[in-house]
Design a protein that fits this description.
The chain has 347 residues and is α/β, with parallel strands linked by helices. It is built from 11 helices and 12 strands. The chain starts with a strand and ends with a helix.
Amino acid sequence: MEIGAYSFGDAQRNPDGSLRSTTEAIQNLFAAIVHADKVGLDYFGIGEHHTTTMPASSPGALIAAAAAATSQIKLGSAASIIGTDDPVRVFQQFATADAISGGGRIEITAGRGSSVETFPLFGYEMSDYDQLYAEKLDLLMNINASTTEEITWSGTVRSALDQLAVVPRPVKGSMPIWLATGGNPGSSARAGQLGLPISYGIIGGAPHRFAPLAQLYRASAEQAGHSADSTKVSVAAMGLIAPTKKEAMERFYPGWYNLNVEMGRLRGWRAPDKRDFVAQAEAPGAFYVGDPDEIAERIVHLHGYMGHMRHFLQMDLGGLPQEYLIESITLLATEVKPRVDRLLAAK
């Protein structure tokens, strides 16, 4: 199984709780990706967010930079908010990163986005949410599947393309495109029907409750005639690894608290309650917070339900100190991943 990390960027905090610069957050994220490659992590995803606390607003730019500074790790968006972006520009940015990487390490994950800030930011209406996503995903897939640079496409949410060049092409002709979802059954069926791999973002509740969705996805793909090779499932979750469970809990909780305070202000979430955090951070909760043994066992346990081929964690949130993120990435690559491999091989 591939083991990885993802991030939206994470602004550090001063001792008085005030935010440090978004510039520093991007520099820290870049350093974390380079470190992840060095210690042997399989995958690093960059999510698109547009807030002062999570400022990774341009996954394509970061991935292109990381492609030049790494040699092995797969890099992707987690996710690109395709409904409020231009699929032509997204494809061009990621194909450029693919060329820089040497080919075969760059992926696009197309999501509808739980972060609704992109709609007013880029001048779209929330009422067009579904149509924007459906048509722009279709355009992105058409560009990726094309055997030539010249693209012809028409729809209602964007101007048509009539034999217009979209360049560069990926080194191997195309790139993996994943569909991201937070657990919508319609999205699982859509991914299966389109023959796209699917990435489940699980941020609350017992992760194994997503098993029926993975079954729906695979059944939809089979019904549409897609091969088993094209049906891949990945799981994105929140968590942190430390030498001991106690250290992991103490390190992750302040960031979780800060995130929930911010989401309460932006989206009306209720005030954070530590009992909720503890419930999510203990099996079978959604958070993978613990020592390497616990995290490996929990990933393998979920694999029994989901059959997923990639499990990746968001570790930096709410101002997690950079040294804790770097240590967690190291433990994920050097301690958790070997344990997962051994446990799966023993099944």
